[in-house]
């Protein structure tokens, strides 16, 4: 694989429609060694993304998994993230990733993310940062194949990894990898931008996605899968530890972190470093990080998937509130020096009041015995606070709220209200274009909220699109059903 550094100052405008464009500047092919080389030196981003390009809602720098910024790589790391021109994340990624097997399995591992795995990006994808090719043997192809590397723009809904390809009833012979591309795949859905990277650690395949929504939400998604049945038929538990350094509005020392015991309760402010443990699937606890001066911030909402795997002696924590320190970007452990996250020295009772704070969050997945190619999807939802924006951009003649929760596992709810009374139809479609539910059909009265309830209990996991059509009202939004 080409590992030289290529720089490009040209702007790539990658349009799926005139109103939905992705801008990529300062593109490079920087890589930064492997975990075996020890702590990584400073590196440069693989590019700066602006979306939409002509009037950005979101801007940020991206780092590919093989461009390590932490000892074992943080996967697909993002930095200097702005929403509507305001800093919402200084840095975010997954510096710690591990797995533990049931008794009789393969013990435990601290996994690495600097080894990229292939992605299916679709026949019509545009490779906008070309970092060269390399050859590798693939059993399913009966010989060597050529792998393209870089950053690619794909049509929405076509990106696949081992997660989708192997964990499907229609695949009689699961296993192996799919696609002939390594790097970052970008999908523009109009009201959502999705970045995907894929890594391998032995037989494991890890997919990390960042979902950026027009309404300000962020879904950091982590998926756990496999390309080989070595060990993975035995029950085991994966843990990915997200590290969020918010530095809201670019002022790192006035972010206030709160914990809420339930919806509608008064949040408890953290004053010292803390480790927190949730109470299982019924626990309504969530957190917020808010700029003490401007009031903007984010709620950190645990997903149903994360709640299904409670803390044990190995995983130790669900969340950490820590004072920022340069030497606490990760815990310094590799596959040869430790499995469990050794965060205990980080939590030493220091004050976080008026200090730069960092929030760690554990996403976990129970991989059931007897299902070696099972794909488990996890990750919290980050919900914006204080932007005074509740509706989806890009709609006409209607206020159309994004569904909450999203992703969801059973049901989710969106709502809309029209600017003038008219007949309206709202329908749910899968990504093949097949209508699967009628959500609303009738007369919508001017200014009155109408609820759209999506029932996912009889639907397969996947991505769905809500389409709303009226005489003057138009709108779409996207929901993700997970199991």
Write up what this structure looks like:
With 483 residues, this protein is an all-beta fold. It folds into 2 domains: 368 residues, Beta-galactosidase, Chain A, domain 5 (Distorted Sandwich), CATH 2.70.98; 84 residues, Immunoglobulin-like. Helices cover 2% and strands 46% of the residues. The chain has 2 helices and 30 strands. The strands form 5 sheets. Strands 1, 2, 3, 4, 5, 6, 7, 14, 17, 20 and 21 form an 11-stranded antiparallel sheet that branches. A 7-stranded mixed sheet has the order 8-9-10-11-12-13-22. A hairpin with a 4-residue loop joins strand 26 and strand 27. The longest helix has 5 residues. It is globular and about 65 Å long. The chain starts with 11 loop residues before the first strand and ends with a strand. The relative contact order is 0.12. The N terminus is likely disordered.
Task: Tag the structure with descriptive keywords.
Immunoglobulin-like; 30 strands; 483 residues; Beta-galactosidase, Chain A, domain 5; seven-stranded mixed sheet; 2 domains
Architecture blueprint of SSEs:
Elements: E1 12-17, E2 20-25, E3 47-51, E4 58-63, E5 77-83, E6 86-101, E7 108-110, E8 126-138, E9 143-154, H1 162-166, E10 181-188, E11 192-201, E12 204-213, E13 218-226, E14 236-245, E15 255-260, E16 268-269, E17 274-276, E18 286-291, E19 297-301, H2 304-307, E20 319-323, E21 357-367, E22 376-378, E23 381-385, E24 398-400, E25 411-418, E26 422-430, E27 435-444, E28 450-455, E29 462-470, E30 474-481
Parallel strand pairs: 9-10
Antiparallel strand pairs: 1-2, 2-3, 3-4, 4-5, 5-6, 6-7, 6-14, 8-9, 10-11, 11-12, 12-13, 13-22, 14-21, 15-16, 15-18, 17-20, 18-19, 19-23, 20-21, 24-25, 25-28, 26-27, 26-29, 29-30
